[in-house]
Amino acid sequence: MDDSGNLKPPASREMVCYNCQGVADPADCYQAARCSKGEVCETHEDITDNGSMSFDMGCLSRQACEAIGHHLPFGRRHVVKRYELCRGCCDKRDNCNSEFCSMKKGITNMTAIDHLVVTPSHLTALLGSRVKYICKFDPQTNETMSMTWTFTDLFGNVTHIYTHDVQPPALKFYVKSVETSDSGTYTCEARLGSWSWSASGNLTVVAASLDIIQGPKTQTVQEGRRVTFSCVVSGNPTPSTTWQFVNGTTTSNIINGVTTTPTGSQMVIDAVSRGDAGIYKCLSSNILGTKESLAVLTVEDIPTIVLAPQDQQVHLQDVVGLKCEATGTPTATVHWIFSSLEQLRSLSE
Q1: Would residue 246 count as lying in a domain?
Q2: Are residues 34 and 16 in the same domain?
Q3: 289-307 vs 219-222, strand pairing mode
Q4: DSSP 8-state code for residue 100
Q5: With CB atoms 3.0 to 4.6 Å apart as the test, which of 51, 116, 135, 307 could cross-link to 197 if both were Cys?
């Protein structure tokens, strides 16, 4: 600063620059040094012996920066073999050499990027089916990150699937035809310098099955009696069981009187009425779909004579007509029995 508190021109002031050797990312450098007059802040990227990237940061003369073609105050990247390296100088402000070449550039609050999500988080898949996992940040960020998928099987063995640098950080992973050995945990890890995030999704592979071993049985009962329908099912995953009542063209779900049993489900009607007559369905469902089995309930009511024959006095040789009508379910059958007056008198004595 000059006597008035203003920043001195770059050529006449001594800059303060971050000064670190071999850091993984310029944003990870916390040491600073005062440069000589005529020097500016500089950062350049190198390839280590093991093939990883590191950064050297410090002071460099303005003439040297200009001689190697750096454009102040920005850094730029150049290609060495298949790697893209960054070198740059700046004189805009003290410690400005952490503002370029960094994978973390533009992030003012790293802890704000804390929600890496893998979807689905839990998945049950059929043997031989295709599954897809997606790994991304929510909300999304536009930083370039190194992202890795790994798989941990049910015995704890960890397998590296693949690593990829992506921008924005979002990575998909497919299993085209799952086997039982694919059951386990798929973990996605995102790295940005010294920061890292991870999220996982669990996969369970099942050889699915679904069957109704014994469906409800057709019954005929008298009105007022108790009726029980049973349904024995099996399947993997364990199927759910529901009941429906079909009366003509109307189908309704049954809730009352339904209980779950160790082998399926049971449905009870304590006192049947004529309105309970119809078709009863047992439906068993899991990820394979739905199977059904049906039974017919017939409700009988005791025959009732609604029109009885009447006593008549006729002359000999007259034609006599007697009527008798009865109702009932099933349809009542009317039988006629003749008894003489002598037989009736003997029965009444």
Answers
A1: yes
A2: yes
A3: parallel
A4: S
A5: 116
Vertex 22 angle, CA 11 and 115, to 5° = 105
Chosen domain end from 206, 221, 247: 206
Question: For 22, what's the count of Cα atoms within 13 Å in the CB-facing half-sphere?
Answer: 4
Q: Which domain holds residue 20?
A: 10-98
Alpha-carbon distance values, 269 to 91, 214, 242, 251, 259 (Å): 88, 19, 15, 17, 12
Instruction: Tell if the pTM clears 0.85, that is, is over it.
Output: no
| Inter-CA distances, 14 with 39, 53, 126, 146, Å | 7, 30, 68, 37
39 within domain boundaries: yes
Residue 4's contacts (CB-CB under 8 Å, 6 or more residues apart) are none
Residues 299 and 222: beta-carbon distance below 8 Å: yes
% helix / strand / coil in the chain, to the nearest 5? Answer: 10, 50, 40
What span, in angstroms and rounded, lies between the C-alpha atoms of 96 and 195?
21
| E strands, 167-263, in order | 170-175, 184-192, 195-206, 209-214, 219-222, 227-236, 240-247, 250-254, 258-261
Q: What is the pLDDT of residues 269-281, one digit of tens each?
A: 999 998 999 999 9
Residue 87, pLDDT above cutoff 70? yes
Tell me the pLDDT tens digit for each residue of 309-332: 888 888 888 888 888 888 777 777
Secondary structure (3-state) at 169: coil
